[in-house]
Amino acid sequence: MKKKNLAYTYEDDSGYYDMSHADVVRAIFAAADDDGVVCLEELADLTVDEPEEDKYLRCRLKDRSEEKVAEIVEILDYLLRKFKKISVYYDQLIGYNDMEETIGDDEETLSVWTAYVKDYSSDDPSENEKEAGARLDGRRIKARSLIAMARRICKLLYLNAPPIIIENEEKHFAEALVLNLAAESVETVKP
Q1: Beta bridge partners of 186
Q2: In this structure, how many other beta carbons lie within 10 angstroms of the beta carbon of residue 124?
Q3: How far apart are CA 6 and CA 31, in angstroms?
Q4: Using N-to-C axis directions, what is the helix angle for 21-31 and 163-182, rounded to 10°?
C-alpha cells in the first residue's frame, strides 16, 4: 500500500538510490502534507527494534520553510566533511577518548567528534542513552542511533568501502538528522 505522503521507498524503481543525501532531505520536506506530516519507511537504526514489513515512521515536521531545508542540508554537508576528516584517524580514536593529542587544535572537528563519534564512558546501554542525549542536546530521535550511524560512516570511510555503501549510509544519516533537527513528533505506524 502506497502512503500518500511517503517521501520515497527503498525499492529499486523509486529513485531513492539515485538521490544524493541533500536530495533525501529535500524529498522528506517536499512530501510533507499541509499539517507537516511525512512518512518514512522504518529504519532499524531509528527505532532500535527490528523493522517489520509495512511499518512506517510518521513524522510531523515543525518548520518546513526553505530556510530550514537549506539549514539542514548545510549542517549535513558540514558533518559529512568532518566525518571524512575524523575517519583518517579512526583506528587511533576507537577506545581512545583524547582526540586533542591525535588531531590537534581543530576545535570544530573536535566538537563533532565529541558529539557524534567518541566512545561512551560506560558499558551500560541505559547510561549510554543518557550520555548520547546529553551530547546531542536531548534531540527527539534516539541520539544513540544517530551516533551509531555517524560512527558507521567514519568506519566505512576509514575502510575505503565502495562509494555506493557510503552514499547509502549518508542518506540514512540524512533521514535521521532531519528527524532529529526538524521533527516535532515521530511515531511508528502500520498503514
Answers
A1: 59
A2: 11
A3: 6
A4: 40
* Contact in structure between 177 and 72 (CB atoms under 8 Å): yes
C-alpha 126/C-alpha 131 separation (Å) is: 9
Residue type, position 42, single letter = E
> Across residues 94-104, what is the average pLDDT?
62
**Using CA atoms, how far apart are residues 145 and 129, in angstroms rounded to an integer?**
9
CA distances from 151 to 52, 57, 87, 99, 159 (A): 25, 23, 9, 15, 12
- Radius of gyration (Cα) for the chain, nearest Å? 17
Which DSSP category does 73 fall into?
H
- Half-sphere exposure in the Cβ direction for 77 (13 Å, CA): 9
Query: What nine digits make up the cell of 43?
Result: 529504519
Question: What is the spatial distance between Cα 55 and Cα 188, in angstroms, rounded to a whole number?
Answer: 7
Using CA atoms, how far apart are residues 186 and 183, in angstroms rounded to an integer?
A: 7
pLDDT class for 97, splitting at 50, 70, 90? low
| Contact indicator for 38, 179 with CB cutoff of 8 Å | no
pLDDT at 138 over 70: no
pTM higher than the cut 0.85: no
